[in-house]
């Protein structure tokens, strides 16, 4: 009884603190999202004054045309690849930041890692376009250094999309892994080595398992938005950059078929949630 | 198992000399304490022996084999860390199995060895638990079991009992000593707790500012300290300073103190005498010196009653002397009382001024 009383008074005193966040979330996410759910069951937008009715056709469209499924699979593959590259690039950097560097040099490197966050996403992508196109910065620089002539034209290709996305999302992996790696006591590493384990064995048996929560968090933070991404694929991928995200974008921006776009979005949301639900117990066991 | 020889080891961190020409011989099967205040270099020395850090100059040998450039994982040592350093992602059994498993031992061998180690530290049934489910004392035992299950050549302990409360610490001291006797492993442990060093070890090395001040059995260091620092850091001591006379010292006020222990020093050189508080007899009447050669008059300024003994602080010529008396009767002295202190030359250690 007493405990219940305290918890109730605790909640009521916490309410003023919680309210702004929840009101904002309700207004900013729940309402538009509900509207989108509503749209996704409509034949047409009511805005133009045309007659409309409820339908499941938008969802049926996904299953009747193999293109959507193909693009969804391509986007999932893109998400996996980008996440993997972010692990390969981000994890060692996080390790060095957390365990090797100290003081000033750590701050400096940290700043470099989070710098992409401070620049506009569009600017970032267009700078990549400058670098990757034929006769661009990368091509010119390599040809200036190398004794033989090579042609680098990565623009409008799958690798260009990967490069752009990895650049945008690798800081998430560095930050989440940095946080878990930093929490690992150095004496655990020393204990492992005193027991005869090589540095690689300590990494495999102690450090990676203990930093798994950071890896999982980083992977989730990267995988979900990359699967739905459209800006990088469209600008850096050109004609090869057609993915599930760009198709959704088309429905909203070009074709003006909001109901279909909304339906496709919710199908993506469902697929991603299923993937995370299936993956989480597996990853939890590994951790 | 093997002895450890540290010869002329020096190690600097920038301008700071953490170890300055330290030589010490740890015999096979012995239990050694490295004692010193913080910053004395005792942990640095332990880390050199373990192989986490390498000496700038000097030699370290384990079992006669030079190891000063061998990395820690190849030295076959066992180490217990102050914060236990148990792997939180593994069960107790897997923690203990770690060293055997990285070595590639067969599963069956690992299982028997782990169980034997668990039994040795009396945690036979806790193998499936996780470290966070154990108490501090239990974690300490697991850390010990993990360190010795690989049959290392030498066991290194870095302030192993520092995180435990007093009662548990005493239990663990006895336990640690029992286990060490049982497996007969050369053991080196770092501590800043002089009582721990005295009760547990066969030999003690006292370090100060990166130098080895004195090394020997606890009784020898306690009875014959070679410096004021050794005298006051290991146990309590009253220090008298004056000029050497040949068989003692003369205090600035002319009082002679006879010393029966310590080096003979040339007359006239600066010297000190150290006297343990429990060796001094305290009495109210002048005739009670009971044949002791050294007598001093003083006045009790403070008495601290601690049950089985009392500590008296006695003022004498601007110096406060400490006297510890076993409370065998009820004839206690009052503060402000004039007293006569006396002690024998055999309880007086002559020390060259440092």
TrEMBL record, chain A:
PROSITE patterns: ABC_TM1. It comes from Mesorhizobium caraganae. InterPro entries: MetI-like (IPR000515), MetI-like_sf (IPR035906). Residues 72-279 form the ABC transmembrane type-1 domain. It comes from the Bacteria. It is a multi-pass membrane protein. Keywords: Cell membrane, Membrane, Transmembrane, Transmembrane helix, Transport. It is found in: Cell membrane. The chain crosses the membrane at residues 21-41, 82-101, 108-131, 156-181, 202-224, 260-283. This is ABC transporter permease. Pfam families: BPD_transp_1. Belongs to the binding-protein-dependent transport system permease family. CysTW subfamily.
């Amino acid at each position: 009884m007493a405990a219940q009383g305290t918890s109730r008074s605790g909640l009521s005193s916490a309410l003023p603190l919680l309210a702004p966040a929840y009101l904002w979330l309700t207004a900013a996410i729940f309402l538009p999202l509900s509207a989108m759910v509503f749209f996704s069951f409509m034949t047409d937008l009511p805005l133009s004054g045309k007659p409309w009715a409820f339908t499941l056709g938008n969802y049926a469209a996904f299953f009747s045309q193999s293109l959507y499924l193909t693009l969804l699979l391509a986007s999932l593959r893109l998400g996996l690849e980008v996440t993997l590259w972010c692990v390969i690039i981000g994890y060692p950097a996080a390790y060095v930041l957390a365990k090797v560097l100290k003081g000033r040099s750590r701050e400096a490197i940290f700043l470099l890692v989070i710098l992409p966050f401070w620049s506009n996403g569009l600017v970032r992508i267009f700078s990549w376009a400058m670098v990757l196109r034929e006769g661009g910065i990368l091509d010119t620089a390599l040809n200036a250094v190398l004794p033989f002539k090579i042609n680098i034209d990565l623009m409008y290709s799958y690798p260009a999309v990967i490069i752009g996305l990895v650049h945008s999302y690798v800081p998430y992996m560095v930050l989440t892994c940095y946080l878990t790696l930093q929490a690992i006591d150095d004496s655990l590493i020393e204990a492992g080595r005193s027991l005869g384990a090589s540095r690689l064995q300590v990494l495999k048996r102690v450090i990676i398992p203990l930093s798994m929560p950071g890896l999982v968090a980083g992977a989730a933070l990267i995988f979900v938005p990359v699967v739905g991404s459209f800006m990088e694929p469209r600008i850096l991928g050109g004609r090869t950059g057609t993915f599930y995200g760009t198709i959704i974008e088309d429905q909203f921006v070009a074709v003006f078929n909001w109901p279909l776009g909304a339906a496709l979005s919710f199908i993506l949301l469902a697929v991603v949630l299923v993937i995370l639900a299936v993956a989480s117990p597996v990853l939890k066991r590994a951790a | 198992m093997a002895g450890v020889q540290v010869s002329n080891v020096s190690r600097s961190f920038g301008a700071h000399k953490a170890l300055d020409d330290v030589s010490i011989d740890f015999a096979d099967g012995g239990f050694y304490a490295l004692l010193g205040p913080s910053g004395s270099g005792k942990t640095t020395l332990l880390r050199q022996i373990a192989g986490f850090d390498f000496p700038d100059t000097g030699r370290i040998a384990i079992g006669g084999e030079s190891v000063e450039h061998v990395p820690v994982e190849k030295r076959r040592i066992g180490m217990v860390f102050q914060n236990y350093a148990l792997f939180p992602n593994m069960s107790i059994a897997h923690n203990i199995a770690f060293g055997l498993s990285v070595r590639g031992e067969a599963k069956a061998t690992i299982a028997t060895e782990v169980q034997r180690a668990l039994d040795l530290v009396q945690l036979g049934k806790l193998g499936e638990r996780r470290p966070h489910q154990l108490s501090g004392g239990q974690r300490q035992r697991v850390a010990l079991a993990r360190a010795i299950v690989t049959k290392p050549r030498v066991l290194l302990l870095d302030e192993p009992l520092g995180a435990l409360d007093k009662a548990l610490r005493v239990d663990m001291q006895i336990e640690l000593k029992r286990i060490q006797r049982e497996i007969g492993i050369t053991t080196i442990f770092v501590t800043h707790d002089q009582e721990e060093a005295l009760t547990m070890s066969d030999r003690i090395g006292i370090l100060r500012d990166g130098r080895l001040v004195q090394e020997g059995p606890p009784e020898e260091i306690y009875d014959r300290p070679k410096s004021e620092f050794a005298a006051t850091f290991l146990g309590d001591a009253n220090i008298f300073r004056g000029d050497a006379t040949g068989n003692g010292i003369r205090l600035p006020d002319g009082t002679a103190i006879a010393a029966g222990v310590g080096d003979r020093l040339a007359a006239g050189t600066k010297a000190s005498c150290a006297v343990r508080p429990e060796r001094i007899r305290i009495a109210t009447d002048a005739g009670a010196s009971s044949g002791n050669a050294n007598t001093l008059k003083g006045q009790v300024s403070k008495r601290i009653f601690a049950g089985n003994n009392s500590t008296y602080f006695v003022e004498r010529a601007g110096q406060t002397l400490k006297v510890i008396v076993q409370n065998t009767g009820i004839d206690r002295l009052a503060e402000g009382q004039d007293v006569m202190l006396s002690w024998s030359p055999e309880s007086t250690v002559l020390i060259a001024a440092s």
